[in-house]
Amino acid sequence: MTVLVFLDPAHDDGRVVDASQPQLMATDLGATRGDGLFESLLAVDGAPRKERAHLDRLASSAAALDLTVPDAAAWSRAIRTGLREFAAAEPDQGHAVVKLIATRGVEGAGRATAWVQVARVPDATLRQRETGLKVLFLERGYDSTVAQRAPWLLMGAKTLSYAVNMAAVRYAKAHGADDVIFTSSDGKVLEGPTSTVLLAYDRDGRKTLLTPQLESGILAGTSQSALFAAAKEQGWELGYGPLEPRDLLEADAVWLISSIRLLAPVLSLDGQELRTSSALTAELSDLVDRFV
Amino acid sequence: MTVLVFLDPAHDDGRVVDASQPQLMATDLGATRGDGLFESLLAVDGAPRKERAHLDRLASSAAALDLTVPDAAAWSRAIRTGLREFAAAEPDQGHAVVKLIATRGVEGAGRATAWVQVARVPDATLRQRETGLKVLFLERGYDSTVAQRAPWLLMGAKTLSYAVNMAAVRYAKAHGADDVIFTSSDGKVLEGPTSTVLLAYDRDGRKTLLTPQLESGILAGTSQSALFAAAKEQGWELGYGPLEPRDLLEADAVWLISSIRLLAPVLSLDGQELRTSSALTAELSDLVDRFV
């Protein structure tokens, strides 16, 4: 089942509503303009993972959108309410997807609509983590420098306007692949539609973990960031792009990492098989499993 | 008041619902992913204007999104239901905004959510048509050729993912302007966030009306198209871009045209005053007023 908790000044811990009934106004700018933000985080045994990082990024998206949203403490209380309700309804589910959504609200009302949704992790998501991914490179249309000079493009913000991200994944599926890595018009590797790109080199026992640099206009990955911190403690070298497609083709392993699917190995790029490493995947997945 | 009519196979003419109550599921992909399409059209004295053009563009957006939506006849019946309800509630309003919205529906349900919304034309919209617009050029980030090679960017589709369009208008307002004309990364004039760019030259009595070419990845403007047809009948020459900012600075008049605000003169671009022509504006507005 799905649990919905609306953030509401009249209810300190959030207002639990019936998720089987309509709860949004049809005039909400989230629905009519994709004008809002979201976060997706994983909860394990009732505890949200990387909650602070997600709430920080939510605040950063809100700033980019010039949108006033509830404060972190209010989100935190609503998350706990949602997880408690979910655990009561689905006692056998150790894992849950927690979505935080805030929209600009009903047109003219000048007040954000904000809610927390808790649901099962989709089976397909779990499957992809195990089986790995066939990936297509698709052009994102932007060059890797535009984000810094054009804040109205909202490139570091996790907005509700995800139609292009969803269309890219549909395009991949229609062409025999599972997922996408976007490239910039100047040939740099950017990100997946719902994930961050990671690659590893393991040369003479010296292990390096790489990801595209944030300045290219990609979303700051909460999982990438947490994994980098954990890998550094284990003696890994860290590196930040610019990366090009051939860097991925030459790597010892490539993954897409995200909060729900976690670390998913990339098996091929545009039909070309990649090196994979079950040892490296196991080592890094072990670090990911210890995120709190 | 706002009238809402949901398209529903069980109700031939659409299902009228209470717009003061929540009518959308919080899990609708329109709200959580901006995954859907819309159209906005003007109705005058109960008659929708350019209905066929809007329904054709809606079908074209649906195809780009690979989204199955109700057919044109069902939309048409729901529009009439909405306009009848609106006229009963607001008998003094000769003009109304009719919005058509279709989303990918509730996650997992595999069925679009579709509705028609009828409401008053906002006063601010009417005012801008009269006073004219101060406009900023803002970079859209894409080059003018990407639309043709990257269909996943959905560039000719009118999707619900309008967060960037809205952010651009907010940016303009925060910088003393009213609206925006997007430019491509290769320096071409594209479109407004919710309008099409028009310019006119009047040289020795030979009048030419110009607009950026569709191949640059802009939305096909229903008002631009209808006005071009009407102006041609009146002896105007017609032209299609590529256009650059200096073409607008050198024109005898520049407008932004759209279905609700209609023909709004552009007074300045990036603070530089433009030539305006009340005679040309009156002549073209007269043609626009006769759209059916």
From TrEMBL, chains A, B:
<keyword id="KW-0456">Lyase</keyword>
<dbReference type="InterPro" id="IPR050571">
    <property type="entry name" value="Class-IV_PLP-Dep_Aminotrnsfr"/>
</dbReference>
<dbReference type="InterPro" id="IPR043132">
    <property type="entry name" value="BCAT-like_C"/>
</dbReference>
<dbReference type="GO" id="GO:0016829">
    <property type="term" value="F:lyase activity"/>
</dbReference>
<dbReference type="InterPro" id="IPR043131">
    <property type="entry name" value="BCAT-like_N"/>
</dbReference>
<protein>
    <submittedName>
        <fullName>Aminodeoxychorismate lyase</fullName>
    </submittedName>
</protein>
<dbReference type="InterPro" id="IPR036038">
    <property type="entry name" value="Aminotransferase-like"/>
</dbReference>
<dbReference type="GO" id="GO:0046394">
    <property type="term" value="P:carboxylic acid biosynthetic process"/>
</dbReference>
<dbReference type="InterPro" id="IPR001544">
    <property type="entry name" value="Aminotrans_IV"/>
</dbReference>
<dbReference type="GO" id="GO:0005829">
    <property type="term" value="C:cytosol"/>
</dbReference>
<comment type="similarity">
    <text>Belongs to the class-IV pyridoxal-phosphate-dependent aminotransferase family.</text>
</comment>
<dbReference type="Pfam" id="PF01063">
    <property type="entry name" value="Aminotran_4"/>
</dbReference>
